[in-house]
Amino acid sequence: MSSEGDKYSILLPTYNERENLPIIIWLIDQYLRKKDYNFEIIIIDDGSPDGTLEVAKELQKIYGEDVILLRPREKKLGLGTAYVHGIKHASGNFIIIMDSDLSHHPKFIPKFIEKQKEGNFDVISGSRYINGGGVSGWDFKRKLVSRGANFLTQLLLRPGASDLTGSFRLYKKDVLEKLISSCISKGYVFQMEMIIRARQFNYTIGEVPITFVDRVYGESKLGGSEIVQFAKGLFYLFATT
Amino acid sequence: MTKLLEWLCFLLVYFVTWLLVLTKYINLNISDEWNSFVVYFPVYTVFLVGIYSLIVVLWRVYSFNDCPEAAKELQQQIKAAREDLKLKGLRI
């Protein structure tokens, strides 16, 4: 166990991830146990019809009830409330949030932890845009929209962090609680607002380059409504912060 | 002050300065042949900022790291994880 007494609670909100969940748990265990970090994984399943929760129960039998905690909810609710729900049951002093579709690789968690210790940062944000980071599986259009949106965000908000829409982050627990309670946005604009509010409260933000592997091909994640939602969120933050 | 107000202040200062130069309240001793340059200065600014933005965004799209080795590593790990989890008794 970690000598400093730090504990890391990893929140995994899931919806129809029965294929990916075992892999991500296996990877987290590989990378964190090797480094002797004290950790727990909190799975917040929003009533997945594909039986994600049953798979999670199987995994709990393998890895133990002290490592994997199941905190399911009845139906699909917002991401923000999933975090609130997860934090309530978290026993760690640090919280890690990540997507459970394997686009966020657990190998970066030890890097987040080392970076946090290096400067006692309040927040560590994984970034696809800085040197050493990147994306895999994106076509020209997705890259263009991503880079364009990021350019506009940097120009208008000057947030002091390079990746606002990514959601692979480590927070001190009390910092995350305060940020969540002060954020109003929903969806992935919520992730942007978290960083902007963190700057407002003068929290320190460290960045770690991450490679983002997109295994879900197709247009599903980038429709016109996503762009409208982003534009609205950007303008909301532009006009209010 | 919100970011919106910061931008509005900046734009206000910019346009007031431009108007003062245009109406010769501020005399920069600009010769007459450069007069049309002063008149269209905001248009040139918008154009240059647009070109700059386009170049920066396109360069970043072009140089966006595709990290194929990360995708490959993940594929191998998925295979290894499935095998190991089967040994550990996972039924999926």
Structure description:
- The complex is a heterodimer of chains A (241) and B (92).
- With 241 residues, chain A is of the alpha/beta class.
- Chain A has helices at residues 20-34, 52-63, 79-88, 109-119, 140-157, 173-182, 189-200, 224-240, and strands at residues 7-14, 38-45, 68-70, 94-97, 123-127, 134-136, 169-172, 205-209, 211-213.
- In chain A, the strands form two sheets. A seven-stranded mixed sheet of chain A has the order 3-2-1-4-7-5-8, with helices on both faces. A two-stranded parallel sheet of chain A has the order 6-9.
- In chain A, helix 5 (140-157) packs parallel to helix 8 (224-240) and helix 7 (189-200) runs parallel beside helix 8.
- The model of chain A has no long low-confidence stretch (mean pLDDT 92).
- Chain B is 73% helix and 0% strand.
- Chain B is mainly alpha-helical and 92 residues long.
- Chain B has four helices and no strands.
- Chain A binds chain B through residues 18, 22-23, 26-27, 55, 58-59, 61-62, 102, 105, 129, 132-138, 140, 143-144, 147-148, 150-151, 155-158, 211, 213, 215, 237-241, and chain B through 2-4, 7, 53, 56-57, 60-61, 64-68, 70-71, 74, 77-78, 81-82, 84-85, 88-92.
